[in-house]
Design a protein that fits this description.
Number of helices: 10
Largest sheet: 5 strands, antiparallel
Number of strands: 11
Distance between the termini: 57 Å
Strand content: 15-25%
Helix content: 25-40%
Radius of gyration: 27 Å
Structural class: alpha/beta
Strand order of the largest sheet: 1-5-4-3-2
Order of helices and strands: EHEHEEEHHHEEHEHEHEHEH
Shape: globular
Length: 285
């Protein structure tokens, strides 16, 4: 940590490139037409913000990072990363393209991988190549599998008349971790979201209706997220399936186990009150 001084201002001013990315929550947007980086730096040094402001300037292989803390406007974390190899820089760029991995974390991982033996690196890379080429989607439910049918659909102990509709495979993993569900699944591959340009035709809804028409089903459970998009998808599916001779249910909603009532939002608390249960049912299997 060094004090903000003219050296920092000059260092930013010497960069001829515009900020590549800007992170933080502050009043006012950065005008992209403002190419005077010295004025930009002076402006953010003077202003007090509750959130950290993170500016990244990139010139060739050098990444100039300025991290300004609102708690202590008189100090910054001034970091210059000079990547001497184009191959390392390309590896950093690829790792940084993954979710939740920034360039500093990516560089740390790349430097760690650089210390591994060629055999270890080959196994590491081959694992991803094999995953991409060999992993399939279950032809019945849409779960991931190494075969045409997943282990859940092939399990004879599963109740095939009970179908749980989920958004993606992560929801299957979450429900399976509870060990409380013994039916099979149907993966929609998303939820209806007009803002994202996702409509019913983009989801695996036709295959679900085909199952309702051709298979013996006792119940379909809607296990989608409790969001506006999730509720919209639930309602659309209900309209499509309501005339069939089986039960249609959805996950119960209410106050989470272990949470304090005063922190529950109004909608969740209201649902909990309206959909209250007999006390005896809370400790029965």
């Amino acid at each position: 940590m060094v004090a903000i001084n003219q050296f920092v201002i000059n260092a930013i001013g010497s960069c001829k490139h515009k900020p590549a990315k800007v992170y933080g929550n502050f009043s006012g947007e950065i005008p992209h037409s403002d190419t005077n980086s010295t004025n930009i730096a002076q402006k953010y040094v003077k202003e007090s913000h509750r959130q950290a402001i993170f500016h990244i300037f990139k010139a060739s292989n050098t990444i100039l990072c300025i991290w300004i803390h609102s708690i202590s406007l008189q100090s910054i974390n001034f970091v210059v990363m000079n990547i001497p190899s184009k191959h390392i820089e390309e590896a950093v760029e690829q790792l940084a393209s993954l979710p939740s991995i920034g360039k500093r974390s990516a560089l740390r991982l790349v430097l760690h991988l650089l210390k591994r033996s060629p055999e270890e690196i080959e196994r590491f890379a081959q694992a991803f190549v094999t995953m991409k080429s060999e992993v399939k989607q279950c032809t019945s439910c849409g779960n991931i599998s190494d075969k045409e049918l997943c282990a859940i659909c092939l399990n004879p102990n599963r109740d095939t008349s009970l179908i749980c509709v989920v958004e993606d495979i992560r929801d299957i993993m979450a429900i399976e971790a509870t060990s409380s569900y013994k039916g099979i699944y149907h993966v929609l591959g998303g939820i209806i979201s007009p803002m994202d340009g996702i409509g019913p035709s983009d989801l695996n809804i036709d295959t679900l209706i085909a199952k309702a028409e051709n298979e013996e089903i006792s119940e379909i459970i809607f296990a989608l997220s409790a969001t506006m998009e999730g509720d919209t998808t639930n309602f659309y599916l209900y309209k499509k399936l309501k005339d069939f001779d089986f039960n249609i249910s959805t996950l119960s909603r209410g106050v989470a186990v272990g949470s304090e009532l005063q922190y529950a939002d109004e909608l969740t608390l209201g649902r909990s009150i309206m959909q209250r249960l007999p006390f005896e049912s809370t400790f029965q299997k």
